[in-house]
Amino acid sequence: MSTELKPKKQCQCWFVPADVVHLFQDKKISALETLLFSWMLMESDSDPDGCCYANNERLAGELNCSEVTVSNALSKLKKTGLLRQVFFDGRVRCLQPIQTN
Fold it and tell me: What is the DSSP string of 3-41?
């Protein structure tokens, strides 16, 4: 009988606030927009100003989609009030996910 331990699987959990889930269920935002918001929320959590500094190229890579898709999703999240652009200096941008709960 082998006593060899199997490596533990790594799990990463993404938090999606209830108000964002409701927007998805009501078909006001897409599944990709929901995931994008959740990812940005996770990234911004470690920043003292609550900002996510990832550019569209990085976001597209994380979500396995095009930069155009990310750009459209970010615009939609801003229009729905879930995301606020704090600053953009032409090179670096700070986006803050907004939680209503």
Answer: -PPPPPPP-------HHHHHHHHTTSS-HHHHHHHHHHH
3-state secondary structure of 97: strand
Answer with the residue of higher pLDDT: 99 or 16. 16
d(CA 50, CA 46) in angstroms, rounded, equals: 7
Domain 28-97 has CATH 3.30.1240.10: no
Question: pTM of the entire structure?
Answer: 0.83
Phi, psi at 34, each rounded to 5°: -65, -45
Report the amino acid identity of residue 40.
M
